[in-house]
Amino acid sequence: MPPSLTAVGTSACWRSAWYGQRTPGEWNRAYRELDQFERQLTDFGAIVVKFWLHVGVDEQQRRANASDTPAWSAARNARSEEAAEEMLLKTSTLGAPWTIVEANDAAWAEIRVLDVMAATLARELAPVAEPTGAGSDAGSGKKAKKVKA
After folding, report:
1. Of 118, 82, 122, 80, residue with least CA distance to 99
2. What is the pTM of this model?
3. Residue 1 burial (CB < 10 Å; 0-12/13-18/19+)?
4. What is the DSSP letter of 104?
5. Which tens digit of pLDDT belongs to each residue from 43-57?
6. What domains can you pick out in the chain, each with its CATH number?
7. What pLDDT, in 10s, does the model give residues 99-130?
8. 44: nearest Cα among 98, 116, 97, 96
9. Nearest to residue 90, comparing CAs of 28, 41, 3?
10. Directed axis angle between helix 57-66 and helix 74-91, to 10°?
11. What integer pLDDT is reported at residue 18 of this predicted model?
């Protein structure tokens, strides 16, 4: 279940919020639902920024060996990579695209995410310039009258 949405004018950050864990059979329906949900958010004016933090195979194995996690499996990793690729392809849209971030180095990944967030917010929240032109109707949305010379 998705987390509670925030009020207008506020921001939030969710980790795997509405993507979560699903069985293979649930994903086809989930792709459509995720696309519809994110479209509703963007139609309402929300700025949706999605990141996939990709950790390479060698780094995943190193991290698994350094922790008390169950044995790392190359076969399980390959299946996860295939599922992730399908999910990224089927849920990246013009209104809510994925940004894939190399995350072997956590500090670098954090900086990259912040850079993309800053650029996206600056672009999406930039004031829209009023159209300029001759006549008192410039910027009013009315069509300018043609004047014969």
Report:
1. 118
2. 0.75
3. exposed
4. S
5. 988 999 999 999 998
6. 24-125 (3.40.50.300)
7. 999 999 999 999 999 999 999 999 999 888 87
8. 96
9. 28
10. 130
11. 66
